[in-house]
């Protein structure tokens, strides 16, 4: 599998023969920890319901996971020369085929579990905009295509990043997409202004070059966890039990710091090569992302979690079942065909 995947977990997407960048072990750790965190989030449903102060704290601590994938994708996409012909088409194929198959599977599974027949117009909408948590894929595809011109100019990449960087610290407060289409989760989660800044931050981070990263890593490794902890405490203690919609702008800014500090902590945690399990999780993040939500749906019906411990059981069961599913499919179909079909 190609460690320079443009999409977390999608292998074999290097930008051509001249692309000889070494594997970034910090990105492996970032992606591996992020995908486990995503399953934890969905196991507790803290992205929708804050049923307790504990769940609010859990949300504050784990909110960095999805931005981390946009950051990693931007880092792995970054170039200052034009993409070789066919590169984007190859990336979109490797994203799109597993996405369509997973969407069809999840739609059928949901119809079976709920007893509600499949709606073809609803399915078409889901494929275009993303069904539930699959919003990630259409937004990433849009971002990938929109940033293609930046591969021709290092200066342009820095300028666009500087224009969008303020959105790293504003959350949904000044998002023009939300002004136009309303403040609903469907709109908020699909706004490029929410996610593209992380993609571009990864992009310009990669443009700084490996030598800069090696020099900066020890300093970041010492300071980022401290900054992350302080920012978490400031937001968590200062706004415990307060709906995020009523936070002042400075709280949104501190919240943005928690995300960037968490990403930096994982990215720079160690200079040693990532272990086998971490590398496997890093390479498998795309199929884990696509299929874990179906196991969440199944196990939620079976376990009917109510307590925090039961939600932990749900998250762990989902992680193990999803890994087992991917291993089984790869063994039956072979690595290459499985990559084509499930990611």
Task: Characterise this structure.
The protein is globular. Mean pLDDT is 86; it is low at 1-19. By secondary structure, it is mainly α. It is built from 16 helices and no strands. It has helices spanning 25-44, 53-62, 65-77, 87-114, 120-129, 136-146, 154-164, 176-181, 185-188, 192-207, 210-238, 249-267, 276-283, 285-303, 308-333, 335-342. The chain has one domain (25-342). α1 packs antiparallel against α2 and α7 packs across α10.
- Major sheet: size, sense and barrel closure? none
> What distance separates the N and C termini?
11 Å
Query: What number is the mean pLDDT?
Result: 86
How much of the sequence is in beta strands?
Answer: under 5%
Number of spatially distinct domains: 1
Count of runs of 4 or more consecutive helical residues: 16
Broad structural category: mainly alpha
What sequence of helices (H) and strands (E) makes up the elements? HHHHHHHHHHHHHHHH
Low-confidence stretches: 1-19
Gyration radius, to the nearest Å? 20 Å
Features:
single chain, mainly alpha, globular, 69% helix, 343 residues
Write the layout of secondary structure elements.
Layout: H1 25-44, H2 53-62, H3 65-77, H4 87-114, H5 120-129, H6 136-146, H7 154-164, H8 176-181, H9 185-188, H10 192-207, H11 210-238, H12 249-267, H13 276-283, H14 285-303, H15 308-333, H16 335-342
Helix pairs in contact: 1-2, 1-3, 1-13, 1-14, 1-15, 3-10, 4-6, 4-14, 4-16, 6-10, 7-10, 11-12, 14-15, 15-16
Q: Can you summarize this structure?
A:
With 343 residues, the chain is mainly alpha-helical. It is built from 16 helices and no strands. It is 69% helix and 0% strand.
């Amino acid at each position: 599998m190609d460690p320079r995947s443009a999409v977390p977990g999608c292998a074999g997407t290097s930008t051509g023969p001249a692309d000889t960048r070494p594997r970034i072990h910090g990105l492996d750790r970032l992606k591996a920890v992020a995908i486990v965190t995503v399953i934890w989030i969905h196991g507790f449903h803290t992205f929708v319901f804050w049923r307790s102060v504990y769940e609010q704290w859990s949300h504050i601590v784990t909110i960095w996971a999805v931005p981390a994938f946009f950051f990693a994708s931007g880092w792995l996409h970054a170039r200052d020369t034009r993409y070789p012909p066919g590169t984007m088409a190859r990336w979109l194929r490797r994203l799109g085929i597993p996405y369509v198959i997973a969407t069809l599977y999840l739609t059928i599974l949901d119809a079976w579990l709920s007893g509600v027949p499949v709606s073809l117009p609803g399915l078409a909408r889901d494929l275009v905009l993303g069904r539930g948590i699959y919003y990630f894929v259409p937004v990433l595809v849009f971002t990938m295509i929109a940033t293609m011109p930046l591969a021709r100019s290092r200066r342009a990449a820095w300028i666009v990043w500087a224009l969008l960087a303020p959105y790293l610290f504003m959350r949904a407060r000044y998002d023009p997409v939300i002004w136009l289409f309303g403040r609903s989760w469907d709109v908020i989660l699909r706004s490029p202004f929410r996610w593209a800044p992380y993609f571009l931050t990864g992009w310009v981070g990669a443009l700084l070059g490996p030598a800069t990263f090696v020099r900066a890593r020890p300093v970041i490794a010492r300071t980022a966890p401290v900054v992350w902890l302080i920012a978490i405490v400031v937001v968590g203690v200062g706004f415990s039990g307060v709906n995020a919609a009523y936070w002042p702008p400075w709280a949104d800014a501190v919240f943005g710091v928690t995300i960037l500090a968490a990403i930096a902590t994982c990215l720079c945690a160690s200079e040693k090569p990532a272990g086998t399990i971490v590398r496997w999780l890093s390479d498998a993040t795309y199929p884990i992302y696509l299929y874990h939500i179906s196991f969440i749906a199944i196990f939620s019906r079976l376990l009917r979690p109510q307590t925090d411990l039961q939600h932990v059981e749900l998250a762990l069961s989902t992680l193990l079942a999803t890994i087992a599913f991917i291993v089984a499919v790869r063994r039956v179909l072979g690595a290459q065909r499985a990559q084509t079909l499930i990611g």
